[in-house]
Amino acid sequence: MSGFPGLSFLGPKSKNAVVAGGLTAFVFGVYFYTMKAVGGTDELQMAIDKFEDQKQVETDPKVTAKV
């Protein structure tokens, strides 16, 4: 890590820990950003609910179909 003069005084294991911490922080940042970006609507869950409601209407003759 000759490109980072501030890390030259650290041992190899300490440098690995710093790099691992930085990578972990980056991964968690990307994960939470992605969850925030897509978390507004859950289209898959809405489609599943619609399918289950439609399936229930087809199997239950007491329920009148909404056309």
TrEMBL record:
<keyword id="KW-0472">Membrane</keyword>
<feature type="transmembrane region" description="Helical">
    <location>
        <begin position="17"/>
        <end position="34"/>
    </location>
</feature>
<protein>
    <recommendedName>
        <fullName>Cytochrome c oxidase assembly factor 3 mitochondrial coiled-coil domain-containing protein</fullName>
    </recommendedName>
</protein>
<keyword id="KW-1133">Transmembrane helix</keyword>
<dbReference type="InterPro" id="IPR018628">
    <property type="entry name" value="Coa3_CC"/>
</dbReference>
<feature type="domain" description="Cytochrome c oxidase assembly factor 3 mitochondrial coiled-coil">
    <location>
        <begin position="14"/>
        <end position="38"/>
    </location>
</feature>
<keyword id="KW-0812">Transmembrane</keyword>
<dbReference type="Pfam" id="PF09813">
    <property type="entry name" value="Coa3_cc"/>
</dbReference>
